[in-house]
What does this fold into?
Amino acid sequence: MMNTTRTTKRGLLNGESISRGDAVRLILEAIERLGENVIGMGRKELIKKLRQTIELGVAAVEQREHTVCLEEAGWESVRAREDCRATTRRDLRYYLRKMLKVEGAAQLPLRAMTTRQCRDILQRAFGHSKSMYTKGRAILHSIFAYGMRQEWCDVNPVARIEVPRVVESPKAPLVQEEVQRLQRAAEMPEFRDMKLSVNLLLYSGIRPTEVSRLRAEDFCWQEKLVIIRPTKSKTGGGRVVPLRGLKQLRPQERVIPKNWQRRWRALRQAAGFTHWVPDVCRHTFASYHAAYFRNLPELQLEMGHRDCELLRTRYMSPMLINEARRFWQASHC
It folds into this structure.
């Protein structure tokens, strides 16, 4: 080992990599950069200081060059979030695969990636959709944040990428005839176990996935409340929502069936819906609540929104007042 080291040093000084003149210039440059730290030092002290400088410099270079590629960092960050719910992990994997399919992206070293490269990856993977671009940006940002904790990079270049402004458009609710079709389908003997679910979707504004996760312990029948726990909500924030229209539900109908998603699709088909807008029941609840009760702070709490701004852009339509009156009167709330 000692002979190998000596041979390597001799090779370096014989002109294979650097000349003796180069070595002298590097030493002088190091002394000049050290400045006042070495003024007045003797030969031994100066050599000791130069060795210390070299050791620290080598450590800094190794640290700076220590990194992994985007593909490895991305999958490691996904594995680190195994405690997330299944739908979140599915989204992480889907968006990461989309980014890694961008030509040349997978093998980019994380530490060397620039804001321009990150923006280009997002644009090529999700440029067709503002909402997907926004979510993709958040996931790429989280990959770099994880990379910084692992010391694979020092900065998060995604932080400099602006979040696209999404202009919210009003959401059209179901009309009363469509509401009645859902309710009539839930009255069919084969769908009685979905009657509570339809009621929660329409008159409590709970998201379909949240309804499917509800269990008996989440209902407070005496207080007429249902608890959407943080582990079961879409956003990870809990809320308490009033139960409405309970007079129309017999005790045996107060159930959430297994295989809920399949049952929900079957009920919609039985009600004659060939095309279904995701979350339209939640939009219906919010639109008619805003138009009839005119109480946005209360609606904000029931919907689980951080503020009222989204409600103002999506659901404030005075033209809905007559439909809203029929909707709430029909619910017997």
